Each structure stands twice: as structure tokens, then as C-alpha cells.
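Case study 2.
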Amino acid sequence: MTKAYQVVGIGNALVDVIAHIEEGFLADHRVERGIMQLIDRDRAVELYGHMGPAREISGGSAANTIAGLAALGARTAYVGKVKDDQLGAIFAHDLRAQGADYDTPTAPRDHGHETGRCMVLVSPDGERSMNTYLGVSEFLAPSDIDEGLVADADWIFLEGYRFDGPDSHAAFAKAIRATRASGGRVAITLSDPFCVERHRDAFLAMIRADVELLVANEHELKSLYLTDDLARAMDRAEAEIPITACTVGARGAHILTRGTRVHAPAAGTRVVDVTGAGDLFAAGLLHAITSGRDWLTALRMGNVAAAEVISHLGARPEADLRDLFAAEGLS
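Prediction:
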């Protein structure tokens, strides 16, 4: 029996506020380069006041993945919390416009927090330094998980960033139970090495018990297994997880399954903003997996989707990914 959804994502619901900066901006404003830092609302207002011209584009890591999958024609839905405010309306509109279902209960106007936003500072070399005010996204709770929705999915895709929240672990556990009880499968992205450091034990417990697909970059995978040796981290992942997809920047990406390893080089592009590279890699990868493609094709689709999103500002695709796949002989 065909399920209603190929992939349901669960994670943050944010609007990205993106601006190019000069090299000295990060030091002048005490921003750590190249990572995601959690900030409060006052810090978000402070940074916004110094950023200069900016674009507001709906984001959130797993939401970007779902948007990419929806643009490829996949049957998708998303679970992530926004407030009944202007940015919340922008987020919901943008995701639905891509073709994804989005019906998570909205936080009321009198909630003490606002819709989350991520201040994305893009350095001259394209590196992005993210400063995230989670807002109401932090308060995703088990009551926000529609068990019928996730049970009707082939895969759920969990966002590692959402481990930062008082009830998020319980929300994920509820979603996992309902998904697995209906024969669905669980995928997770580690999101960020510092996120891994904050929640390593919880990540490992979930991965070992329930996860069939892990998506990570090399830094996150090494952080997960407390090693500076990528080869050792990959060996550990292969031994513990049915499928691991590990990106290695300009060197491409690897798929590790128990007994099979495949590598594909990165797709060439001009780097403008690396925001969303891992998110769209996951979209291409999951599209291939849910379409029954082989591992090399899955990696190549992931790499092509990642190359598209880093060629412009913003973490949602602007070109037709299906056309790009066709041009690479991947249709």
C-alpha cells in the first residue's frame, strides 16, 4: 500500500535573514566563523541593526530539505513550529508554495516568543556564520506530532538542531514510535558539530536504536565518535548504522552501508553562499533513495542539488533540480 508521504521532515521552522559582510565584521561583532550559534532575541535585534542590506528567505535545515524534495515532485510534509506573526506567515506560505503539506499548530499571538529567525552572515569566500534565535521553534512538543501524519510516511527526516529544546526529544520519540510501528523508516541529520557536542549521548542512543539513515558532514561525524580521524569515524558509522551519507566538502560525498562504500566527487559550481548545502544534499539523496536509485546516483543527485544551492544566496533551490539532474544524465 502506497503511503501518503515519501518523506515527512521534523525540525526548526525559521526565516533566514541573509547578508553579505566584510571580513572584519565577525571579529568586530563577536561572531564565531562558520558555525551555528544560538542567540536570544535581543542579540538578534543587535546583529540585524549592524548587518546592512539583507534578504529574508524561509529556512530551517530540515525544512530546506523538504522544500527541495517537494520541488522534485516528492510527496512531503513538514512539522515545525511558528507563531501567528508576519515571519510565521512567510514560512508557512513559502513551504506550501513548494508543494509540501504544512499544518503544525501555530503558537498564538500572545506567546512570549516570536517566530524564529537565523541571521546568516556570508563572508567574501562564501562561508556562512549563522546566529539563530529559535523563538517558538524551540518549543516543539509531543502535542505537535500528528501520529497519523508520520505513520503515513515512508521516511521521517529528523533535524539535529531540534535537539536544542525542552520537549524536542520527547517529540522525536513519539514520531519515531508511530513511524516504525507503521513500517516507516527513520533518517536524521546531525546538523552541526557543536550541536553534536551538546547532545552526543542522545544522538548515539537514538542512532543505535532507531536510525536507518544518518546524514552528516565529516566534522559532525568525527565529533559524534570523538575522533580526529575521518576513516575511523566512518568505520564506526558503518558498523552501527545501516546507511551513512557523509559529505566531505569539495571532495564530494560517501555512502557507507554494511559491506558497500561508494564515493562521488562534488559537482562543480561557483560558490556564493554555502548555506543549505547539506540540506539540499539530503534532498537529492532522499529523492534518489525513495525513487529506488542506486547509491552512486543517490550521491550524484545529492551533490548536484548541493551545488545548485551554494551558487546563490539562500538555502532553497532557485533552478529546476529536475532539469539539472537531466543535464547530468540522472533523470
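The mean pLDDT is 94.
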